[in-house]
Write the structure tokens for this entry.
Amino acid sequence: MRLLATGGAGYVGSHVSAAFRASGHEVAVYDDLSSGHEWAIPPGTPFTRGDVRDTSRLEAALRSSRAEGVLHFAAKCLVGESVLKPDLYFDINVVGGASLLRAMERAGVKRLLFSSTASVYGNPQTSPIPEDHPLNPVNPYGESKRDFENLLAAAARAGAVRYASLRYFNAAGCAEDGSLGEDHDPETHLIPNALRALLPGGAPLTVFGRDWPTRDGTCVRDYLHVEDLADAHLRAWDRLCRDGEGGVFNLGTGTGSTVLEVLEAIRNEAGRKVPVSFGPRRDGDPAVLVASNVRARRILGWTPCRSLADIVRTAWNWGQTPIKNVERRR
Ligand code: UDP
């Protein structure tokens, strides 16, 4: 089928778009390149550089690509930044989302997969977290994603859209073939920061807190390989097209790793210890975030099959690829 991926030049968007192309779909890209990269768009891909709040431009991109559906990744996604600039987060994630729904309506496109987040849950009351856990986001990022989920639900009730909302836990790792990877600026995520600490001249990684109520005092997260994440999108999309059924799905492995366990996996892969310093807790970090993925397994027939070692290996491999190094030299 023909799809338009908003944010298709970003980290998750580029990997998911690649998986759709590999299964025979045509994926055009709409991205403002504020955090995405031109090198993440394969040559020959129809590409529109634009802002999601620009409804007319979106409509034109939907029409010119003759899109039959949308993969909506375009968003601001840094918790810390959202606390400082809440207006920007609501503007892009909610107003931009509304603009996309308007453009879809005008272009006659009804199907959508939405890139949501575990941040909609806030501090979990139970672990692992099921989809019916109360939504109590604790920062503007999570609030903006929850608000757009609410808007989607209302639009679906009005018959304007059919959608699935995919709540990501910690997307991590890079393409197995080394063609795509994670490159944020600024980089705030644990695994790329830990790998950077291993590069010549790399500053030690700061571990945020060692007094958490967890097995080794560091935070527990559910790291999911981005290609397993992509596979879940394909399954959700197939179901949406086949049965017209959407829904909300947590995407995680169901197992958590502490920061120190991640650093140990990196030591195994790289053969060297990541230099670290221990700092205070980071504001807004819950101690433990682990997905219940029972619903995605049962309804989508999805099984995440890549391990933490695979995540670290592919991320390390990517960190050494020419594209990455060219980009870094700029
Ligand atoms: N973390 C850390 N040092 C860093 C980045 C992250 O100790 O430089 C910790 C962070 O406190 C959290 C975990 O690593 O417990 C994962 O953080 P990340 O930013 O990768 O993802 P998040 O869980 O915030 O979405």
